[in-house]
Design brief:
It comes from Aphis craccivora. By secondary structure, the protein is mainly alpha-helical. It is built from seven helices and no strands. α4 (53-67) packs across α5 and α5 packs across α6.
């Protein structure tokens, strides 16, 4: 049994672990997300979402508990942001990247939440 090779690999693992400890992490960037229910007046809101605010609030009351994030860690997307991103995507027939730009979230996140909302 050759113990020198296993000892050598253990040493390499320890050296790699110690070298990782000294690295500083890249700072996390959190984008500010607009609250579209508050930001737009009723006409501007209707032009962007093709629904009135009252209808969106009714939908939000009906399914918010089903789609909300279980945690608020890492600035989780709120139920109203998910719903408005989905409604914007469906109302305009836009691509995910434009829904992402409008909602202030990444396009993979937008796609995940649009799918989650449409399944309900």
């Amino acid at each position: 049994m050759d113990t020198s090779s296993s000892s050598s690999s253990d040493d390499e693992c320890v050296i790699e672990f110690v070298s990782r400890l000294g690295r500083t992490r890249k700072p996390r960037i959190f984008r500010k997300r607009a609250d579209n229910l508050i930001e737009w007046d009723k006409n501007a809101f209707y032009n962007r979402f093709r629904l009135i605010k009252r209808c969106v609030n009714i939908v939000l009351d009906l399914i918010a508990f089903k789609i909300e994030s279980p945690t608020n860690r890492n600035h989780a997307v709120t139920s109203s942001q998910m719903i408005l991103c989905t409604i914007r995507f469906l109302a305009s027939g836009c691509m995910l990247i434009t829904a992402e730009d409008f909602a202030g979230i990444h396009k993979t996140t937008a796609g995940k939440y649009i799918w989650k909302f449409c399944r309900q």
